[in-house]
Design brief:
This protein is mainly β. It is built from two helices and 20 strands. Strand 18 and strand 19 form a beta hairpin.
């Protein structure tokens, strides 16, 4: 009788534990966000007019500025390679940004710049296109954060496919570098073959990411791209942009997922989308224990005009 009671108690305890875990997973949410702030717009009549689109930020502490940001434009490629340019901006508060007077620092075929500072060297990962609009991911390096060279291919071009939207991340928990990116088929003659995949590669050395095996984190039959990762309050938060007119109308949204492991199984959060009014291309960063989300907002869909905005976690 005692053994049966102990057995039943263990069963009940295990059941309660599993129920608790299930309820916790169902109730998981992205942290509360502040009101949105416009932090950057393109200059009228200039190379970036109405087209600022992505912002990658590093804490550089150079030349009187704590933060250095690298922004790209919304042009997609395919016949517009000369419009794919990169600008440098700098700030001390992550809200007010001064544009570098020598912009653009890269003036051709550079989309989605994403930068990490390793020691004293800057690494910029970005997408590079051909005339057919197929893309690959390359990396260039810099000693001063302004002049980049030494280009090498990280994710090679595949005919008829997109390999783009890189997000480079150093994980303090396991001391590995992780490259998140989107890989998929967007323009197949047979639309049922279209697919969108969020990929990740990891390596102890940033130079070896090109040889690392890719792993699929998420896959979709509707537009799912632009991954970004952040470790905050002992959780990994993955954000992606999405487009599905049946779900969200004719608007871009930003979805969010959570996992206990950086390359583990990600659960869709209950309050996702976290940004839903033609908001896309989010880059997440934790600076001094505060989670910031820099993203692009389309304020004129007829002309595909965008500005850059920021929200941060409030609690």
């Amino acid at each position: 009788m005692i053994n049966k009671f102990i057995h039943n108690t263990k069963v009940v305890s295990l059941t309660l534990l599993l129920c608790s875990v299930a309820l916790h997973a169902q109730g998981a949410k992205y942290p509360s966000l502040s009101e949105s702030q416009v932090i950057m717009v393109g200059d009228s009549g200039k190379w970036d007019a109405d087209k600022v689109h992505t912002l990658s930020v590093v804490e550089a502490n150079k030349e009187g500025y704590k933060y250095w940001g690298y922004y790209g434009l919304c042009y997609y490629g395919g016949g517009q390679l000369n419009l794919l340019k990169v600008g440098l901006v700098r700030s001390n508060d992550l809200i007010h940004w001064d544009k570098y007077e020598g912009n653009p620092i890269i003036g051709d075929n550079c989309r989605w710049p994403n930068v990490i500072l390793v020691g004293s060297r800057f690494y910029m990962f970005y997408a590079e296109y051909d005339e057919a609009n197929d893309s690959r991911i390359v990396v260039v390096t810099s000693k001063d954060g302004i002049h980049f060279d030494n280009k090498s291919v990280v994710v090679p071009r595949e005919r008829g496919m997109q390999n783009q939207n890189p997000f480079i991340y150093f994980n303090e928990q396991d001391k590995n570098f992780y490259l998140f990116y989107y890989s998929g088929i967007e323009k197949s003659r047979d639309s049922t073959s279209n697919n969108w995949n969020i990929m990740v590669r990891k390596s102890r050395r940033i130079e070896n990411l090109k040889d690392a095996n890719p792993m699929v984190l998420l896959t979709s039959r509707y537009t799912l791209a632009a991954p970004s990762i952040a470790f905050f309050k002992n959780k990994y938060y993955l954000s992606v942009e999405a487009w599905n007119s049946e779900k969200w109308g004719n608007k871009w949204v930003t979805l969010a997922y959570v996992s206990d492991e950086i390359d583990g199984k990600y659960r869709h959060l209950d309050n996702s989308p976290i940004l839903s009014d033609n908001d896309a291309c989010a880059f997440q960063y934790v600076f001094h224990n505060e989670l910031h989300v820099f993203y692009s907002h389309c304020f004129d869909t007829t002309k595909s005009n965008w500005d850059l905005r920021m929200v941060k976690v409030t609690k």
